[in-house]
Write a structure and sequence with these properties.
Blueprint lengths: L6 E6 L4 E7 L4 E3 L11 E6 L2 E7 L2 E4 L7 E3 L6 E3 L8 E8 L7 E7 L6 E7 L2 E7 L12 E5 L12 E5 L7 E7 L4 E7 L6 H27 L6 H9 L1
Parallel strand pairs: 2-10
Antiparallel strand pairs: 1-2, 3-8, 4-5, 4-9, 5-6, 7-8, 9-10, 11-12, 12-14, 13-15, 15-16
Amino acid sequence: MSAGPGSLFKGFTGCDLLSVYGTVNGNVTFSPSKPTSEPFTEILWTKQKDKVVEWEQAEQKDFPPFEKRVRLNTTSGELTVLNLRPSDEDEYKIESLPPVPGATRFFLHVLEPLPPPTLNCTSANGNITIRCSTLEHHNRHPQLITYSWDCSSEQCKNISIAEISFKIGTDLRQEVKCIVKNPLSRNASSIILAACVSSRAHSRHRLPLIAAPFAIIITCIVLYRNGTLKCGRETDRTNSS
């Protein structure tokens, strides 16, 4: 099996079904694993039960939606699909005279290039948590996406999940990068830890210090009005009498 630009051969998935990955708008080539010993007289490629391209008596016919999007090598039997679409994902099979030895069935996975992932972070209970995710419409094959992290802290080493946590006492100036990959593409996004700690959290720590003087003043006023506390000149006049 050979792979065209924007494609990757992954190997057998069972019962002589070869798995292949291609990129949206890219090309992929399916080829029998062994050449025939005699020239072909007929070749038919199908996607499930639908015809893709048929060649016989030296004439080739392409079928929709593959018209003008396929190239057939009548010597090797190779089929190249151009300008891949998500709807092209399926099982493909070659039938020929003479029959092709070896692998004749392939499963095509059509992947979209991964965009930069989205990073969301929260801070609670003394921890900063960062979650890395891809947009849903770019995530048709979540099982094929892998995650890794890059930063100056130990937490980023040997971690392969979509979420990572730090103590708030960690150096907040450091950059944390999430890298996402699938079999054909790679992308990354980064964030500074300080951006995950809200100014509101800092304000909560300052509130008791600001509120304390006001509480003392209010208490003094209440006690003064009740006659419990004598302040200023009135206290002096009482003492002089």
